[in-house]
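$ run holo --ligand "(2S)-2-hydroxypropanoic acid" --emit C-alpha cells
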Amino acid sequence: MATSRRVKGIAFDMYGTLVDVGAVAEACKEIASDPIAFNAHWRAKQLEYTLLRSLMGTYQDFWRVSEPALAFTIRRFGLQVSSEHRRRLMETWLHPKPYPEVAAALSRLKERYALAVLSNSSPKMLRAGLQHTALTPCFRWVISVDAIRLYKPSPSVYQLAVTKMKLRKEEMLFVSSNSFDVVGAKSFGFKVCWINRTGAPLDRLGVKPDLLVRSFDELAAAIPNARLLTVPGANHYTILFALNPHPLVEVQRFLSD
Ligand code: 2OP
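-- output --
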C-alpha cells in the first residue's frame, strides 16, 4: 500500500544549484581563449579531487582542493598565469551570482519548510557566498561537509543533513542541479528534485530523481501542493505528485524515459 508523508525540510546544494558557477567562466576570460572549456575543466578537476581525497582518506577543504585543481588546469591548457590572476580566479568562488529567481522562490518555500544548504564547499566559502548573494536569512542551517571530512556523494554527508535538521530521511527533499549529487542523494534514500536548467543527461547509475524541474520557480510552484507518495515495488520510484501541471508532465515524461 502506498504511504504518504509531507515534506518538512528541504536541503539544497550550493554551487550550480543556488548560485551560478558560470560566473567563474567570466573571470576565466582574462586568461583563457576558451574560458568555458577552461572553467568546465577546472570544475571537473575540482570534483575529481574531492572524490579522490574522499577515497584516499586525505580530506582537504574545498578551497584547498580548488587551488591545485586550478593549477592543474592552467598546466593542462599550457597557460602562464600570474599569482595575482590565480588569486582573482579563486576569489570568484567567494562572490557567486544567485540564479535570478532563487531568492524569491526561497522566500516562498521558507514560509512552510525548514531550509538548509548542504554543500561540499568549505564553511568560509559558504559564509562568503551566502552573504554576497544575501541568501543567508533564507536558511536555518548551513551545513558543510567539513564537519565530517568527506565529500558528497558519500552517504555520510547526506546523513549529516538528517542529523542536523532532526528530521527523518523520508520527510526531506534534497535539491541539486548536479547530476552526481542527484544520484548520490537518491541512492542514500532522500526524495530528490533535479533542477536541470540545461537539459543535461542524467548520470547512468541506476537511480533517478523524483522530480525534474528547470528552475526554482517550477520547484516552488510544485512543492506546496505536493505529497511524497511512496509506492512499494513501483519501479523503485517515489513519485512526487504536484498539482501544478507543468512539473507533473515533466516528471511523467522523465520517469518513462
Ligand atoms: C556543493 O555546493 C561544490 O556544488 C558543490 O556541494
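-- notes --
The CA atoms of residues 28 and 34 lie 8 Å apart.
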